UniProtKB/TrEMBL annotation:
This is Fatty acid desaturase. The keyword Membrane applies. It comes from the Bacteria. GO terms for cellular component: membrane.
Amino acid sequence: MIAQDVIDAPAAAPAQQQSGIIKKSAIPDDKEMLRAAVELTRDISAALPRIYWPDMLASAALGYAALAGAILIANPWLATLSGILAALALYRALLFIHELTHIHKDALPGFRFGWNLLVGIPLLTPSLMYEGVHTLHHARTRYGTVDDPEYLPLALMKPWSLPVFALTAILLPFALLLRSAVLVPLGAVIPPLRRLVWARFSALAINPEFRRRPPQGDFRRMVFWQELGCSAWAIALLASTLVLGWRPLLIALCVVSLTAFLNQVRTLVAHLWENDGDAMTVTAQYLDSVNVPPPAVLAPLWAPVGLRYHALHHLLPSMPYHSLGEAHRRLSEHLGLDTTYTKASYPGLMPLMSRLVGSTMRPR
């Protein structure tokens, strides 16, 4: 939730302008919006097990059933459709990793273990890859800076960087298989390799300068068991090719590649990526992030589990995904039109993509 000292602090200085463009890092906090976000949503801030469990379980079951169809169905068109359905369902199941980083550890008993067992380990993306990483992205003094593992100033980069950024995700499942089946087991007996793998290849980060610190305490024990599970599963997948051949595994990897590509496209439009590297106020972080509220009908497919309200999530990081729609409705109704709050709302994926591409083409 928003810290009270942020709401009560004096207003920031007026935003500085350079060449007529307001620097993101100079945008002051909108205290009325921050206060309303806290006060209007207290009664809907609890994570509800009756929503989380059925949603996650149904998404995973549908995803694996459709993946089996993609492997077993002889008709290529039906197999392809089944593969696309599998990618979408597994995408939704996988994105519960985002919720795990924010909900209180006691809010959903057994959910972290269940998700890792059913989704995280089978897809070689256990919660260790996000926990302790994503929260740095929400740190008030880190967002949009070189210390943010999930930020690149993509809008200020060259146009070719966007397709490269999106297409590299296709290789992620193959890299994860190599990591868990080869690098992690080797790291168990080669300490320098273990430290390298942890620092560079154990986080879902997009900032190439990010280096992860060694795990400590209870988290270290959790990392051990999750890594053990992933390595055992990855080795079993490779061993299965001796009996089943490579076709089933390659189809599964292609389906997960599509899932990774969808997530990378969503990441491209989750923010405006316009910060120049300076620390930002909470309001500036909000305005550099994106909401795609109704009536955008396809947003639940490409931004599931509440991620269509990504800007609102940056105002209320611990708000459960099933409450974000109601929170958005309340804030829109309370604050009205033509306010700071509405400036983070956009009509859909393609307008956001067009804006980002246009930003990369501006003369610097």
